[in-house]
Write a structure and sequence with these properties.
It is a single chain. With 135 residues, the chain is of the alpha/beta class. The protein is built from four helices and seven strands. The protein has one domain: 3-Layer(aba) Sandwich (Rossmann fold). Helix 1 packs across helix 2. Bound molecules: adenosine-5'-triphosphate and magnesium ion. Adenosine-5'-triphosphate binds next to helix 1, helix 2 and strand 7.
Length: 135
């Protein structure tokens, strides 16, 4: 468990966590609106794909950052509108060449059946308690 009391510290926590990640890793990010999930992902991206410009796929549910030897997929299910959109996202294929980070994974419950990292962000004023575990 670590404590981050600014966006910069949350980004730094993401940076530290990035060194644990390998191709094939799935990361489920949990926490209320504004907890800092996207902020944390920015830190991860700064390590895994430091020079990436974000590729823009045809749907906003997902951003793709190309690193040198892996691809980082950042998916946000908050705006998921239909099951059809879900079929377009082939997470298991993405895991073959990269790392997948998912915000609001509860919208896609079967995800949690895959081996994954849980990153749980709890808000306490300006601070965030960040709990990371392997499941
Ligand atoms: N310690 C902190 N860590 C991260 N963000 C913080 C912190 N303190 C304040 N903030 C603010 O909280 C917000 C976090 O936004 P962010 O988009 O990262 O959250 P999120 O969990 O991705 O939300 P959403 O569920 O809407 O996608 C930002 O506005 C940020 O400036
Ligand atoms: Mg977010």
């Amino acid at each position: 468990m670590s404590k981050a009391c600014s966006s910069e510290e949350t980004i730094e926590a993401g940076r530290r966590f990035a060194s644990e990640l390998r191709k094939g890793d799935l990361v489920l990010l949990m926490g209320v609106l504004g907890a800092g999930k996207t902020t944390f992902v920015r830190g991860v991206a700064s390590v895994l794909a430091p020079n990436a410009h974000v590729s823009s796929p045809s749907f906003t549910l997902m951003k793709i950052y190309r690193g040198t030897d892996l691809v980082m997929y950042h998916i946000d299910f908050y705006r998921l509108r239909s099951v059809q959109e879900l079929w377009d996202i082939r997470i298991e294929e993405f895991l073959e060449d990269g790392v997948v980070l998912v915000e609001w994974p509860g919208r896609f419950p079967s995800l949690a059946k895959l081996p994954h990292w849980s990153v749980i962000l709890r808000v306490s004023g300006d601070c965030r308690w960040i709990d990371i575990r392997r499941s």
